[in-house]
Design brief:
Helix content is 74%, strand content 0%. The protein has five helices and no strands. Helix 4 runs antiparallel to helix 5. The protein is rod-shaped and about 80 Å long.
Length: 136
Amino acid sequence: MPSTMETHPKRLDGSEKSPESKDLITSNTASTLCISSRSESVWTNAPRSKWEIYHKPIVVVSVGGAIFLFGVVVTSLSCFIKTNKNVYKMCGPAFLSLGLMLLVCGFVWIPVIRKKQRQRQKSRFFQNIKSFFFNR
């Protein structure tokens, strides 16, 4: 009998696995991670549509515009409604600034994506030239 009070867990065979472990075994987490990785476009040469390229900044600009307009409405309510005037005066500028921040981020993101696309095209061009000369 061992002198320490260690207890070793009982080994589980296939029939005694918990439902959580069955989910982990049967899930295809690795393939999901590979599909959603940022470097997916590096591995695929399929041409992407404009929507696939620009959908994130378009969504950010749209949400930013909606929040900005909501901030304009809330701020203008502080001028017309006399009850809870302090709440409108505090929340209105907060929504204005948040919406403006998202608008600016979205509009700046678009030229960044364009520059990245041009760099990718140059990189592909130089890779083709390099492979042409060194694979002879």
